[in-house]
UniProtKB/TrEMBL annotation:
Basic and acidic residues composition bias: residue spans: 488-500
UniProt protein name: SAM-dependent MTase RsmB/NOP-type domain-containing protein
Highest taxon above the source species: Eukaryota
Native organism taxonomy: Eukaryota, Metazoa, Ecdysozoa, Arthropoda, Hexapoda
PANTHER family assigned to the protein according to its UniProt record, in alphabetical order: METHYLTRANSFERASE NSUN7-RELATED (PTHR14663)
Record-linked InterPro entries: NSUN7, SAM-dependent_MTases_sf
Segments for region (Disordered): 488-507
Amino acid sequence: MGVRDDAKGNRLRHALRKLLKMPAPWPEAAEETEAKRPRVSVTPTKRHDCRRSIQSAGGLCWSSADLALAASLLETPNARFPTVTFANQEEKRRVFSLVYDVLRYKSILNQALNDLYFFVRYPHFKERCHLVWLLFFDLYKRDFALRDPLESDVEAAFASQGLHEVDETLWQLRVKLAATISRLRIKSGAHSLSKLLPRHLRITRSALEENIVTGWINIFKTNVNDTSYSLQDMGIMPLPRDRDLLEPSTFKTDHLLPRFLHIMPSLREDLVESTLVKDNHIIMQERTFCLGPAVVAQLLKDLSLSGKVAQTHVNSPITMAYFANLLVNNDKIDSLLVFGAGYRKEACDQYLRELGVKNTRVYAENFASLSPESRVLDNVIAVLATPPNTNSSVTDPVDLAVARGGDLQILQQLTDDDFASTPRGDHINKFLVDQRDTLRRAMSKPQIQFVVYETHSRFTCENEEMVTTLVTDLNNYAAEVHLEELRRAQGESQEKERGTGEPAAEAQAEVPVVKIEDDLSLPIPPLQTVVIPPTDLFELADLPNLCPNYENCLDLVAEGTYIAFIKRKEITRLDPKYMIQMAEARGLFGRPENSPKTKTTGQTARAKAALAALQARSEMMEEKNKAKVKVEMDRIAAPTRASLLRDIRPPSTRDCPRYTHHLAHDGTPSYLLRSYESRKTFLTPQEEEDLICRLYTSPKVNIYPPTLYEDLPPLKFWNSPASVIESYLQ
């Protein structure tokens, strides 16, 4: 009976397993001896002799202690800034390289595990899949070979994080895992596992490039000559000028970036653990993130600008320090202001103090959220805009994560299979809003002359589209502002004319009112052209030449970065010459000799602007409307009673011919010294008297032809049309 029940139960379990498509149970493995257990990946003393079965980011090998630190990173709740302590920067970079490799290969590792129904058989490992990927990757890295026994401190770290259970489970399945990996590789026709990766996750650098250490000279601690001598004392010689490629134990300076070095030591640890690096004389960094500061520093020299420089975000404290190094030798630049540090402000200040940087001030406030009343940007003349972006074209994500203080989130983001080809809407929209707000705030300050916009994205919506859209929108906004000011000035001018042009009550009683048909009061057509100062308009310009001795030396696509140079169409330099010109324009130095004494008010300036706009509009009008616009301008330009009363210009030294003639004849005019094409004779005294009576008292209609009336303006209105004189007298 018992045997029959067991057979029935086995059939039920088999049917259920077949229905659920579960694999058959594996036979129980015999207990292995201690000698067959997995051991240390590689000891620190033998790290340089390790065998690379797959390509590693940065070409670094790791120890079992690094595995424990990597497990802590992957298990951290705050992936943006994990609280894992490292002994030095080299250990930090080594661990992050391991984590980046695990995240790159996670899709392949996960596929191999799913082929063996690993998480179905061991469901309690599903929530700790990152640790399974980590130890599986290390097992494949060892070619499924043995490891040395764990040291005591590493043993304790493994036990505290529960790595032993995962490690032993994978070790028991090592043969099946190796076979599954081989099937995946053979099925795709790939001779190595790296060929199965998506294209954006493949490392294209050669093994020779992985041995090169890049960094810049910290001139707050040393200088270029002393650093060169120190490298030579270590046996690292400068590369001859006739060679381009680095050789072991050589170094060279970068052809684009000032004080930037490329070093190939015989052993990486020799340089990393030297006093040059420990004493912060050489700061290790990837060159891609130094291009933006180098462009700004070169533009400041080319444009000869004076003032302060701002950086909108603290993406990397190392890049911020390099920017400060480039600006310290420019006597015209006061300081560097860096925003967006947040709660990392104290850490950034501490890092700058360690490097000896003294020309930089860090702010916790967000650049785009600064209030308009804030005076912190008063003397800023240039901005390096580095808002957050997708970083989808970064060539060295590990260096970016390390430079940001250990940003694991950026590694998780960049290793997403679909993110490089199609950005997630909610994720990229947040970046786009921040980028747009940052550029608008930087371009809204009148004293800021140019903005350098830098991203590390391959998406056009973050690069060209963002910049061109912002420049067009801000230029249109400037046109709308000037148009509104012009309309306001025209309205105030017309109100002023109506208010001051009405005669007093007594004058109205003495002079009879004559109603004149105002045929000249034409409606103002819509303005088609607005005169905008070039200092209020922006344009996209070419980047400066960072390497005069080379052609096409800056390939931004190959560098994995995008840089845009946005500047005002007319650069204003706040130098002494400009200040003197402004003071002279405002009359602070007094009125020059032989210059008419005039009283200029704000309304006068606005009236001049209105007339200039009308003149520009008249040039754009069609031929049939030009006469109307001319009449419109004559009517607006006509002097009012208030303007004539305020007119205190000195009289002209030219004698009036009629006044001279009157004096020659004892004030009794006999004839007027003017002739007309219609008569070819001079006016008689009676005709002149009648004409003066017509102009200065009540007009006598149909006495003289219109040409005579129009061609002889009297005295004060010599340059004014008769219609203006008659309108004024009435």
